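Support request from a user on the community tier.

User writes: "When I paste my structure tokens into the form, the page sometimes reloads and wipes my input. The last time it worked, I copied everything first. Here is what I submitted, just in case something in the input itself triggers the reload:"
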């Protein structure tokens, strides 16, 4: 999917005569939609992520923000897009290990015990207690995972970022290497260093501004995880106003999506059934709270498979009502 943007011969920040804009409409840049690989999220986003956009993904610690975004990065790389995952929380080996576990989760016809054994082997490989080459020769799941990763490994770059040294200039250099139409993931935004003596809220705003400018200038899509304020950690349902620097983030972002645990976020009227409640505990809810290019207000649920560091990519639109701290009370 494409949409019209400004003519390529217009210099940013310079006055342009309207007549020149009109005559230049045949030479416009286009914005590309890139499927995330999660269904029906791509349907709700009219095709997926878009170049020149900043997408913010928020959630409390442990809800699966890194799991979700790393799986999205993998899906995009597998589809042929150039992707870089800049992570301030985990090193490259840890991220690669998560991807290997993810691929194991997609293997068909594997028993639960074989999967558990393979995960234990993977854990020991990452600790240096086993050799990947040796296990690859004997373990079918390891072979499957490595084979799947080889299909997209050349499209996905992993960066162990430093909250002291890895700033916007470094991320810009990564984007320059990938070129137009690529995707940059930042995990997470508030750890990206930025010059100046700012409050936490001001830092978040300037970090978001710099990433939005990066998306515009490089014709790329930027996806950034955002941390919650302390008050949001106790909320049953995290909302955009719970994010650190919420006002600036909401303004700069083209899209804001929030992750929540379903068993906490649904109205209590839906949790009286103990069987239903247990099923809710296995689900994560993604809410599209802002979407500059289309409708928002969609809630989509995905089944967790956290032992394999992944979500089932085939979700469904939520049927139950969620808590709304502003308009609805149980």
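"...and here is what came back when it finally went through:"
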């Amino acid at each position: 999917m494409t949409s019209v943007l400004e003519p390529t011969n217009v210099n940013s920040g310079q006055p342009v005569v309207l007549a020149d804009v009109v005559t230049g409409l045949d030479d416009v840049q286009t914005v590309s939609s890139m499927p995330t690989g999660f269904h029906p999220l791509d349907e709700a986003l009219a095709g997926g992520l878009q170049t020149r956009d900043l997408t913010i993904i928020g959630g409390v610690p442990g809800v699966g923000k890194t799991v979700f975004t790393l799986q999205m990065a993998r899906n995009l790389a597998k589809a042929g897009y150039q992707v870089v995952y800049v992570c301030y929380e985990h090193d490259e080996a840890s991220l690669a290990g998560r991807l290997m576990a993810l691929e194991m989760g997609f293997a068909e016809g594997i028993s639960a015990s074989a999967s558990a054994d393979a995960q234990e082997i993977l854990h020991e490989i990452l600790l240096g207690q086993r050799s990947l080459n040796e296990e690859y020769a004997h373990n079918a799941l390891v072979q499957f995972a490595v084979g799947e990763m080889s299909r997209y490994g050349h499209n996905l770059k992993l960066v162990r970022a430093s909250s002291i040294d890895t700033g916007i200039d470094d991320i810009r250099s990564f984007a320059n290497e990938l070129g137009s139409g690529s995707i940059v993931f930042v995990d997470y935004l508030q750890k990206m260093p930025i010059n100046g003596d700012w409050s936490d809220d001001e830092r978040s705003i300037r970090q978001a501004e710099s990433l939005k400018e990066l998306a515009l200038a490089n014709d790329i899509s930027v996806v950034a995880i955002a941390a919650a304020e302390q008050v949001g950690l106790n909320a049953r349902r995290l909302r955009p106003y719970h994010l650190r620097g919420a006002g600036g983030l909401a303004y700069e972002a083209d899209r804001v999506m929030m992750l929540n645990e379903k068993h906490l976020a649904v109205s209590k009227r839906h949790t009286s059934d103990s069987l239903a409640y247990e099923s809710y505990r296995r689900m994560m809810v993604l809410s599209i709270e802002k979407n500059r290019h289309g409708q928002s207000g969609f809630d989509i649920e995905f089944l967790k498979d956290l032992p394999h560091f992944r979500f089932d990519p085939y979700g469904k639109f939520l049927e139950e009502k969620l808590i709304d701290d502003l308009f609805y009370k149980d």
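Agent notes: The reload is a front-end session timeout and is unrelated to the input. The mean pLDDT is 85. The chain is about 35% helix and 20% strand. Escalated to web team.
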